[in-house]
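User: My instructor asked us to take a sequence, write out its structure as tokens, and then describe one feature of it. I'm not sure where to start. Here is the sequence I was given:
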Amino acid sequence: MKYVLIENPRPHVAVLTLNRPDRYNALSFEVLQEIHAALDEIGRDLKTRVLIITGAGKGFCAGADLKEGLGNGQKWSSELGPVQDRYQMQMAFGSLPVKIRQIPQPVICAVNGPAAGGGFAIALASDIRICTTTAKFNAAFIRIGIGAADMAVSYFLPKAVGPALASELMYTGRFVESDEALRCGLVSRVLPPDKLMETAFELAGDMVKHASPFGLRITKEAINLVQGGLSLEEAVHLENRNQVLALQTQDFMQATAAWIQKKTPEFKDR
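Assistant: Let's start with the prediction itself. The structure tokens for your sequence are:
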């Protein structure tokens, strides 16, 4: 891939880096296609238990590239009419946050700089968001003549910060600086730039060390379904099913024995 790097610097941890720093990692059509391909590859690899998404250079992601693609009339497919072509392009953008939620691995978004528009959407779709003091976020869509409800921002943002603040941010497109992002719950940690990836690896390492692979996957499944609007009874039913399944695994038996012996379990995904 040209603009997306996939690395495995730690056991069971993958890092997806948006690697177009000269354009603040803006989402051209090619970048978007590469992210989809990378997520498909990672999602199939169950040896990878946690994914970290970050950006190269000074920015996380500036959103859709208006100079290359959306702004210059570039077609997504040369074989389609204009309406059908735009629809396929919009589907590719809109399905990206869905894919981030659908892959079985928890996703840590390490936001190293501004996250605007589509970059904001990628961060919102991630399970955990941490950022540097230089990071800032905005729903930039409203400022380029389209609606701010795009790429699942209208779904995730109210859940993160509440409907009133989400509405303000979507109607105005104003930036949220890192300190406000922490106060309103948009991120869980704000870090010096040189500590961002170190902290991301620590969080990923805690998951790998203390949670079974199956446990991580069914926990993400439950969080997604409950956020989607399950009732209390439905949520408990889902939890009960998942726990009964997990109780039958060798990893549960091994973890229980390790706890009794005050040792660290070695999960095998069995």
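For the description part of your assignment, you could build on this observation: The mean pLDDT is 93. Try explaining in your own words what that tells you about the chain.
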